[in-house]
Structure of Cyclic lactone autoinducer peptide:
Amino acid sequence: MVIKKKGGSALKDRNVITKTARLITGSLDLVLKSSANSTSCGVLYQPKAPKTLERFRNKKK
């Protein structure tokens, strides 16, 4: 059972909540930016591979 005192505890709780919210939004922004950049660029535009890269393939056609 948690008993809260009147006074400074509300400010401390608000500080913890804001720090947690900033951490969550920052990590979600990072994930969304990396996902958007990696998948959409590959789907929308994929440049032609040079012929010289064929020698590095595992399987030959």
In short: The helical segments are 9-44. The two ends are 69 Å apart (CA to CA). The first helix runs from residue 9 to 44. The chain has a mean pLDDT of 75.
